[in-house]
Structures are given as structure tokens and as C-alpha cells.
Design brief:
By secondary structure, the chain is of the alpha/beta class. The protein has nine helices and five strands, in the order βαβαααβααβααβα. About 35% of the residues are buried. Bound molecules: ligand Z5A and magnesium ion. The site of magnesium ion has 3 residues, from helix 1. Ligand Z5A binds next to helix 1, helix 5 and helix 9. Keywords: ATP-binding, Kinase, Nucleotide biosynthesis, Nucleotide-binding, Transferase. GO terms for molecular function: ATP binding; dTMP kinase activity; nucleoside diphosphate kinase activity.
Length: about 210
């Protein structure tokens, strides 16, 4: 009998909406309920390309808007084969930011949507995007906001508008993140579970 593939589940949302916390909780929850699941995050700062991105985000290196956009995209391409292999082995991937962050942050700087989407064409398309929504006030009150590049209120407002343009009701689910950590995990786990159960013979699709 062939293995049912894992689901590709992406968490997106504005800064501090709790993506990393929730991705980790979700992997733990899925594992406890007997499903194989793995956490993956972008940017992956552990690669050579990721280390350049890290220098940029921490204001230790400058790149023009197009260059940093392509580096973020390259950072996802580096992982494509590994992700495909894991999914085919039946492992569900819970991904902390993906191409949607890539497009939203660059488009918020003024690059065109089409230009921003192009380098993402051919990457794996998620089965489910869980988009965490958070009001500006709630975002600003959370710990750690303001330490890195892009972490300012005006820019985050533009990012939010760009994310909203990417919304696609066929595989996106908006979730209000302004609730307790555990309540939010329960809501997300329900959506994740439904998606995993619906996998059966679904082929992997590609963006965009
Ligand atoms: N970027 C890009 O430009 N292009 C790309 O292609 C990609 C990314 C992939 C760094 O990303 C930057 O890269 C990011 C987008 C850009 N720039 N910005 N802004 P990152 O993923 O490394 O960003 P980060 O520094 O980890 O922040 P974050 O991901 O936005 O935070 P989060 O993961 O959404 O939140 P968190 O770390 O889980 O939680 C934040 C805080 O809130 C923390 O103190 C928690 O304890 C607290 N928290 C979490 N959940 C709750 C609840 N439910 N209630 C109250 N408090 C909570
Ligand atoms: Mg994070």
C-alpha cells in the first residue's frame, strides 16, 4: 500500500502574530495525536544564503529591494527537494512563513506583485494557509516588536494590505490570533487535522 503524502501547511501573518509559537505547538499537537509532522521555517538562517538574509534583517548588510527579494526566494528553492521528499514520506510540514511573506514584504516596499511572484513560480503550493490576523494595537503590545528591520507600525500596515491581496479562499483560512495561545492552537489544529484527513491521493501542486 502506498503512503498517503503529508500535508503542506503554512502559517502566515503580520509580525508577532504568533506564527512561530503556533507552528511549534501544532507540530507537538499533531505528533501527540499520532501524526508525523515537522517544523520548517523561512527564512532558514542556517544556510549560506540564510546567513546573508540574517545580516540584512539585523541591519548588518545592505541589499537593494530586488536582491533581497531574490535571496528570500532562493532560500525557499534550496529547501524544495527536501520538502518534497518529506511530504512523499507521509510527513506533514508545518511551515513558518513562505512565499506569501516573500511577496507581501517586497510589494509593501513598492515592487510590483507580478515581479515578486515570478521567482516563486514552481515552488510547492501549500494545501492550507493559516493566516493569523492581529490588530495593530495587539501587535505593538507583544514582546520583541521593533528589534529588526521592517518592524515599524507604518510598514506593517502596508504588509497587512499586501497579504490581504494574496488571500485565496480556495486554500486560505483567516484566523483571529488575538486569543490565548492554547485556544489558538486548538482552532488551528482543527483546520490542520481536516486538511491532513483530506490528503489521500491528492498530487502535490505548484505555485502559483
Ligand atoms: N521576510 C521577508 O521579507 N521575505 C520573506 O520571504 C520571508 C520573510 C520568509 C523575519 O522573519 C523577517 O523576514 C520578517 C518578514 C521578512 N520581518 N518582519 N517584520 P521571521 O519569521 O524571522 O520574524 P520573527 O522575528 O520571528 O517575528 P515573527 O515571525 O513575526 O513573530 P511570530 O513568529 O509571528 O510570533 P512569535 O515569535 O510566536 O510570538 C511573538 C511574541 O508574542 C512572543 O513574545 C510570544 O511569547 C508572544 N505571543 C505569542 N502568542 C501569543 C498569544 N496568543 N497571546 C499573547 N502573546 C503571544
Ligand atoms: Mg516567527
Amino acid at each position: 500500500m502506498s503512503t498517503t503524502r503529508g500535508a503542506l501547511i503554512v502559517l502566515e501573518g503580520v509580525d508577532r502574530s504568533g506564527k512561530t509559537t503556533q507552528c511549534k505547538n501544532l507540530v507537538e499537537w499533531l505528533s501527540k495525536s499520532g501524526k508525523k509532522a515537522k517544523y520548517i521555517n523561512f527564512p532558514d538562517r542556517s544556510t549560506d544564503c540564510g546567513s546573508l538574509i540574517d545580516k540584512f534583517l539585523t541591519n548588518n548588510q545592505e541589499f537593494n529591494d530586488e536582491t533581497i527579494h531574490l535571496l528570500f526566494s532562493l532560500n525557499r528553492w534550496e529547501s524544495k527537494s527536501k520538502m518534497e521528499k518529506l511530504l512523499k514520506e507521509g510527513i506533514t510540514l508545518v511551515v513558518d512563513r513562505y512565499s506569501y511573506s516573500g511577496v507581501a514584504y517586497s510589494a509593501a516596499k513598492g515592487l510590483s506583485y507580478d515581479w515578486c511572484k515570478n521567482p516563486e513560480v514552481g515552488l510547492l503550493k501549500p494545501d492550507l494557509v493559516l493566516y493569523l490576523t492581529l490588530t495593530c494595537e495587539a501587535m505593538l503590545s507583544r514582546k520583541g516588536f521593533g528589534n529588526e528591520r521592517y518592524e515599524n507600525k507604518e510598514f506593517q500596515k502596508k504588509v497587512r494590505e499586501c497579504f490581504e491581496k494574496l488571500y485565496d479562499s480556495s486554500y486560505w483560512q483567516n484566523v483571529d490570533a488575538n486569543r490565548s495561545e492554547m485556544d489558538l492552537t486548538q482552532v488551528l489544529a482543527k483546520y490542520a487535522d481536516e486538511t491532513i484527513l483530506s490528503m489521500s491521493n491528492k498530487p502535490l501542486k505548484l505555485l502559483w
